[in-house]
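Hi D.,

Good news: the full-assembly prediction came through. Inputs first.
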Amino acid sequence: MAEACKLAAGNWKMNGLRADLAEARALAAACSEPGCGVLLCPPATLIAPMAEALAGSRVMGGGQDCHASESGAHTGDIAARMLADAGARHVILGHSERRADHLESSEVVAAKARAAQAAGLVAIVCVGETEAERDAGRTLDVVLGQLAASLPDGSSAANTVIAYEPVWAIGTGRTPSLEQIAEVHDALRTAVPDAAMSLLYGGSVKPGNAAEIFAIGNVDGALVGGASLKAADFAAIVAALDAA
Ligand code: PEP
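Then the structure:
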């Protein structure tokens, strides 16, 4: 059976000006040896200049969202092939902040993932429970339900990565126990349509907890928010994944 690829993906969210490309350059310099996949997803305004800054390095660039349509009257939106044209290789879809702020349903996420895959991008599809859902014992129902509804037909390890991100762990400094992460990742591994699909954990991953999270079976990497903004922190997370 094919092994899942390891990936450390950084999500800069709505942070970063051109001056911050220095952090991306510093990350590329710190990750000069071959190893796991390394990805930075900056705001859309920085995708093209970041792709130029990182050309020839180990660090790939990606987007944080795309529209489900190829083009048309959708003011303010970005089509998947525009991201690809700007140098993106991946796109994050269905992040809990988009599901909450933009009322994105899993069906919308699936349509976006279909568009991303058609444009040659790898869709990083995010799933995760709220604290209330975990407290109600519904974590696996919620996560597996989101997974099933968010993946279009044809999703494979080549065009899709899954990120398990408990909503209550994002940006809070709180993380699930290692056993709780393992439980969800084991369930995801049996539920994904391609067993070689990479499964990332996301939610308050830092240099100090990365190694223990990467030691969990069926965790193939991380989706990292805050700690991806500083090259030194993200490089330490990349090093932990290389060593796992
Ligand atoms: C995220 O936004 O996907 C995320 C995991 O954020 P943080 O690492 O800051 O919790």
